[in-house]
Amino acid sequence: MEERWLSVDEIAAHLGIARETVYRWIDRRSLPAHRIGKFWKFKASEVDDWVRSGQARDESPTDPTGGKIA
Description:
Layout: H1 8-15, H2 19-29, E1 34-36, E2 39-41, H3 44-52
């Protein structure tokens, strides 16, 4: 059976993150996403592999207010 394409909201729910984080990871961390017209679509298997590879990991610690710790 062919894996279906997921929307931003569906992949956010799959990962347990906010939809804004999905957009940020597409832009800053190369989250595997495919642009179809004005919509972003995802294959859960591609995203899961990306997460397992460690690319979702934050590389620098942040303070509780969200700022970078120097």
